[in-house]
Amino acid sequence: MPPRQRCLDCLASEPARLFEAALWIAAEHDPDLQPKQWLNAVTNLRQQVLVALPERPARELAQPLLRRLSELGFQEDNDEPLRPQAALLHHVLQRKRGQPLSLALLAMELARQLDIPLQGVNFPGHFLLCVPGTNHLLDPCTGRHLYLEDCRALLYHHVGPDLELSAEHLSPCTGRQILQRLSRNLRMLHVHAEDYLAALKDAERVIELGPPSSFDHLARAELYRMLDCPQAERYDLECALLLTDDPAQHALLGKRLSEIKGTPPLH
């Protein structure tokens, strides 16, 4: 069974095996990867975390869990330029460096194994975590509590003044949304690394996990353009056209589509 299908099967299980699903995403880019090996590594890591946790109710252990991971060396990857390894979980476990989402996936898997309630929050620009029923969020990189004003400052830092904080930014997200964001991260990192075939795998997965945005179709269309696949590019441009209400975008897409229509078919 191919890694993509194994990923989707993990996501569809009840409960979803989210960390394993993310490992199968990594396996699409590394055919030698054996997810079971890295699941065993997390089980071993659990013991290192467990011995340092205080004796408190489970709902009070999310921050100590995150701080323990930081003590063990797990940190946000700040390399410039950031490489795909920051989002591929087996590399994150090896290097102890990763994007906030990758570190959050590790923390959520450990929390699951230790019966600690912990959920993902699809915050713009910096993935966050939350404990259900609390009045704060958690930074997966440090364990820091983030209250409303902290979240506004974080949003301003990553997105700028044009986006106002909303309840949607602070709400728990689904496993499918998490894997779609992971796939978008990988798509971007592979594009920056000029590995367009790898980026295309990620772009396809983003759309398969769905529902895709117009930007998702535009991103895949651009990859098809760089790989000289005009008919596939045309399909995604047409999808993007249906999903956008921006008149300027409509005009640009229409212009590009008319250019592709004049392209002779490949034989």
Automatic annotation (TrEMBL):
InterPro entries to which the protein is assigned, alphabetical: SirB1_N
- Give the domain of life: Bacteria
- Domain (Protein SirB1 N-terminal) ranges: 38-183
PANTHER family given in the database record: F-BOX ONLY PROTEIN 21, SI:DKEY-261L7.2
What family does this belong to? Belongs to the UPF0162 family.
Q: What's the protein name?
A: Protein SirB1 N-terminal domain-containing protein
Protein species of origin:
Zestomonas carbonaria
Q: What is the lineage of its organism?
A: Bacteria, Pseudomonadati, Pseudomonadota, Gammaproteobacteria, Pseudomonadales
